[in-house]
User: What shape does this take?
Amino acid sequence: MLDLAIIGGGPAGLSAGLYATRGGLKNVIMFDKGMPGGQITSSSELENYPGVAQVQNGMDFMTPWIEQSQRFGLKHEMALVERVIKNDDKTFSVILEGNKEVKAKTVIVCTGAVPKKVGCKGEDEFFGRGVSTCATCDGFFYKNKEVVVVGGGDTALEEALYLANICSKVYLVHRRDAFRAAPVTVEKVKKNQKIELVLNGVVDEIKGDKSGVTDVIVKFNDGKTRDIKVPGIFTFVGLNVNNDVLKQTDGSYLCDISKNNEVIVDLKMKTSIEGLFAAGDIRIDAPRQVVCAASDGAIAGLGAISYIEMLH
Assistant: This one.
């Protein structure tokens, strides 16, 4: 039986494995269907991780994490986890593809979340070259330039306000004429002179060249179009939380889940199920920053040690 099963090999999972094994847990496996590193490995530039002054791409940044996390005994198994079950004897069963079962005393779920796509032409082609889903990560690259923000919820409006502090102008594109965001946030956006509302329209196409994005074509409900010439577009149309491993055979979830499908945890990354932790972008109120995911993982890893000590 494993001391700890970690599901997901991004910054949260690797950090959890590092702290758990360095803290004394001997039998720890991190399950990930691909190579460790997570979504950040596809990032072209990373410059805001504390203590790492050199700007690096995501792959170069994450490579040392993998070696370091395995130094104290963490093992990586390239396998797809289908489900986590809590057994009557308080252990967990991790069900892998092919109906293989692995038992563990405690589990940390770090499967993350994936930003939803706008679904327009050019979105995939220019992702990472002008198309972004993270203003905190990439906003600085557009200092004193104009950008487009897409979305009508709290995240979209908050990120538009954040970008307005950096960029010369922000075009906020929303498919309706009313926003889903909190009224106080909507009021701030409307009063900000750097933000222009582009309402009742959707992004129809993102155009660019070898250097990246050059134009965002907005199509309005009346059929008219507008060409907004910008080098960057930030999309905030929601997240698909990767919580499938927590779904039980009857359709319920193993632990408490928020209305946005995120795992509800406390400050120690504990879920509503004793011995089950969640860390990184899968949890409620996740800031979606590498440094925060790493912190979550460290907290969860230390929590797993404390839980196992309590069992004894």
Q: What stands out?
A: The CA atoms of residues 41 and 61 lie 8 Å apart.
